[in-house]
Amino acid sequence: MKDNRTEEFQELRPLLFSIAYRILGSVAEAEDAVQEAWLRFAGSPTEVRSPKAFLSAAVTRLSIDVLRSARVRREEYVGPWFPEPLLADPYEDPVRSAELADSVSMAALLLLERLSPLERAVFVLREVFDFGFPEVASAVGRSEAACRQLAVRARRHMAEGRPRFEADRRERDALAARFFEALHEGDLAGLQELLAADVSLVSDAGGKAPQLARAVLGAQNVARLLGAVIPLLFRIDVTCEQHEVNGQPGAIFRDRHGKVLQTFSLDILDGRVQAIRLVLNPDKLGHVGPVADAWSIAEEVKQARRAGE
After folding, report:
1. CB atoms < 10 A from the CB of 41, how many?
2. Going by DSSP bridges, is the β-strand pair 250-254/239-242 parallel, antiparallel, or unpaired?
3. Is beta strand 260-269 parallel, antiparallel or unpaired with respect to 272-279?
4. Nearest to 269 by CA among 195, 215, 217
5. Which residues have a Cβ under 8 Å from the Cβ of 231 and sit 6 or more positions away?
6. CATH of the domain spanning 2-80+95-161
7. Exposure letters 194-213 (e unless 16+ CB within 10 A, then b)
8. What is the pLDDT of residues 102-156, one digit of tens each?
9. Is 270 exposed, middle or buried (0-12, 13-18, 19+ CB in 10 A)?
10. CB burial of residue 135 (10 Å; 0-12, 13-18, 19+)
11. Pick the residue with more confidence: 47 or 296?
């Protein structure tokens, strides 16, 4: 029985993680929820008729409980809060790949933050993973009627600010490639041309890494900042590795030893970069790889700037 349950769990694990991550916005917490769901599944003394239903319900309820306590911590968070960057979603559905990628984007996850934990769980199960309302009701422990009402409210909130992304992913990726090429070349004019007039650049360091005092707004200001800082990073052997982040174009910046300094995530629409989100909080980067000392790199950047003056 245990061997069979192990096989069933491993088959469902990508789905379980993807559900938990969208509810929690945290890789570490999602992995913990999946592991706890496995322990409950493995330890169930009775036969489990539907492993998918059992495990989906378990991981959803665990995630709701964690999210409720996490809300309090996030209210005390220093500066803007972003989800932990996700480099690859383990769950794949070729029929709905575009929707799945958009639902895990930074912009979508930040919108989900506006929902109550129950609304968020219902939206993720119903709208993202296409669970039927009987399955949703069982997972969250509410009636089908209540879940339908939660789904309506969640859809309304999401629709009010729902992000739209470049429909043609090839065009999106080509624009992202031009953006990072201009970044590498220090091409200020080229960068500015690729940015939307009202583009925003925001960083999440959580008080644990150097952080922008406030969001940088406008194409000229964002291009000027990137044009001033990024060449200095390259001068001290920081590298920029293009990589999809949360289903959208992005990059990982590493120090000279290959340790992770930050991630970049781009929102692209109408042929322009609409938003740039940086995650520097070391607590959110450990799953990407060994984390760099951002403070010492900031000091090196200052020295490089003084040397070039």
Report:
1. 20
2. antiparallel
3. antiparallel
4. 195
5. 186
6. 1.20.140.160
7. bbbeebbbbbbbbebbebbe
8. 899 999 999 999 999 999 999 999 999 999 999 999 999 999 999 999 999 999 9
9. exposed
10. buried
11. 296
Closest CA to 278 of 223, 218, 228, 216: 216
Residue type for position 274: Q
Which pair of structure tokens corresponds to residue 244? 């999809």
Give domain 169-308's CATH number out of 3.10.450.50, 3.40.50.2000, 3.40.50.1820, 3.90.550.10. 3.10.450.50
CA angle in degrees (0–180, nearest 5) for 285-290-294: 70
- How confident is residue 164, by pLDDT bands cut at 50, 70 and 90? low
Distances (CA, A) of 222 to 251, 279, 286: 17, 16, 27
Measured CA to CA, the distance from residue 125 to residue 135 in angstroms comes to: 9
> Which neighbouring-strand residues pair with 260?
254, 291
| Amino acid type, 66 | V
Enumerate the domain spans of the chain.
2-80+95-161, 169-308
The set of long-range contacts for 216-223, using a CB threshold of 8 Å and a minimum separation of 24, is 219/192, 219/195, 220/192, 222/191, 222/195, 222/276, 223/188, 223/191, 223/192, 223/195
Determine if the pTM surpasses 0.85: yes
